Amino acid sequence: MTKNILVTGATGTIGREVTKRLAAQGAPTRAGVRDQTKARKQLGDKIELVPFAFEDKKRFADALKDVEKVFLLPPLMPNQVEVTNAFVNAAQSAGVQHIVKLSAIGVETETFTAGEWHAANERHIRNS
What's the whole-model pTM score? Predict the structure, then answer.
């Protein structure tokens, strides 16, 4: 069985483009989405959709089933560190082998809040 690539944030500007490009290259792509109707309109009929929200940890297992790689576009929210790290833990438990995380340049040295959140998530991913 071919393992999937899960794309989080698949209906946003970046996630949508990543999803479409992976699928166009023949990669088995799964889009983690909140709104399947919106996603189907944006992504077409050939990409697998799975219900997903960082705030709903119960959805992690289904989204990660048969997934080998993840494109992680973390949510920009006050509890970003907590919910993203919980997702990374679930991915590790599910056997995910590779995570590509969208971040920002220089987060290790930045003191702005979102930069600190990204840096904390990146450390957690490296340690996983």
Answer: 0.84
